[in-house]
Write a structure and sequence with these properties.
Elements lengths: L1 E4 L5 E4 L7 H8 L2 H18 L9 H28 L1 H7 L12 H19 L8 H18 L9 H27 L10 H7 L1 H20 L5 H6 L5 H5 L1 H29 L8 H26 L7 H21 L5
Antiparallel strand pairs: 1-2
Helix pairs in contact: 2-3, 2-7, 2-14, 3-5, 3-6, 3-7, 5-6, 6-7, 7-8, 7-9, 8-9, 9-12, 12-13, 13-14
């Protein structure tokens, strides 16, 4: 508490603002919802890439997950941190609670954090002759390249709606999903260098391709929906997002319909395939059927949730649309939770 005496002899009591512990500021700087998504994607994609359920629970799988997790979370921190550094003025309007916009984190500290995160992440990915796979390095370098182009001048692709969406869709779709799928095949399940490239996994393994396409669609929804609550600040600073161009109502309802359709389509496909599992040549058709029923039920429930939660949301109310946007992230986590059961 500080006591200040003004020139007119009046006394003013001012509450001193307590500085937050650095670890709390750093956690907010990571944009937790994104780093949690990355942390869930890596083990989920390893289990998904396993040829059988039994193969998923080998020591090599855990070793591969741990090795990939550390640089990937650092890369996530680099990308989200760089975006906050370059968007600090916009965030003072759209997201004043972020650590740089609120003054809890200085520009110098932020620059050090993102620089160290970037260098350690890339170095770690190339540090091991076996675990530093092509898939892992494609995920790291691809994310770094697109994240940098998205935020950093003079490129700053976020100014251009198609290119901004392309960056997010590419990272959340092929770069992460195919990259870590290929990494798991090589580092955890003994695949050869020739057969575990990202390109080969996308072209030769339908599961890798289809999962990448699904999360690319989800990435598109996230890319466009995240701009709906940011409409005011983006318009003020001439960021011509799709929301600024088409209006928050148009983007909100179109993305809601797209994600609802995607979830319900997946649910219907797996509901049908669940009944075909018993007549398949699988060694354990009952387990296969149960896995497909789980995927189907989860997808249908998620699709209903996307639609139902939107009913009471005003697309022009930033508080309501941000809450809805964060609800979509919970469904994003759910999608990775059930991904290993996609068989």
């Amino acid at each position: 508490m500080t006591v200040r005496v003004n020139g007119d002899s009046s006394v003013v009591v001012v509450e001193d603002q307590k500085s937050l512990p650095f670890w709390k500021v750093l956690w907010r700087f990571t944009r937790p919802h994104t780093i949690i998504g990355s942390a869930m994607a890596i083990p989920a994609l390893h289990l998904f890439a396993a040829p059988t359920f039994q193969a998923a629970f080998q020591p090599a799988v855990l070793r591969s997950i741990v090795f990939a997790m550390f640089p990937s979370l650092l890369m996530n921190l680099y990308i989200t941190g760089l975006n906050q550094i370059t968007d600090v003025d916009i965030d003072k309007v759209n997201k004043p609670q972020l650590p740089m916009a609120s003054g809890d984190l200085s520009p110098t500290a932020a620059n050090w954090i993102v620089s160290i995160s970037l260098l350690v992440s890339l170095a770690w990915g190339m540090s091991h002759p076996v675990l530093g796979t092509q898939g892992l390095n494609v995920a790291l370098w691809g994310s770094m390249l697109l994240g940098t182009l998205y935020s950093l001048p003079p490129f700053r692709l976020k100014r251009f709606p198609f290119l901004a969406a392309f960056c997010i869709v590419s990272v959340r779709g092929a770069v992460i999903n195919a990259g870590f799928f290929a990494h798991a095949q090589a580092a955890a399940f003994g695949g050869s260098i020739a057969t575990t490239t990202v390109w080969n996994c996308l072209c030769s393994d339908p599961r890798c391709l289809l999962s990448s396409l699904f999360f690319a669609v989800f990435g598109l929804v996230i890319a466009l929906m995240k701009d709906v609550p940011d409409y005011t600040g983006d318009a003020l600073f001439n960021i011509r997002s799709f929301t600024v161009r088409a209006g928050p109502k148009t983007i909100f309802h179109s993305m809601r319909r797209l994600l609802t359709t995607a979830f319900l389509a997946v649910g219907a496909i797996f509901a049908r395939s669940a009944f075909q599992a018993l007549s398949s040549n699988n060694n354990n058709p009952t387990l296969l059927m149960a896995s497909r029923i789980l995927v189907s039920a989860s997808s249908i429930a998620a699709g209903i949730s996307v639609h139902k939660r939107s009913n009471n949301v005003d697309p022009e109310n930033s508080t309501q649309t941000y809450s809805y946007y964060m609800h979509l992230w919970k469904l994003f986590y759910l999608s990775y939770f059930v991904l290993p059961f996609v068989r």
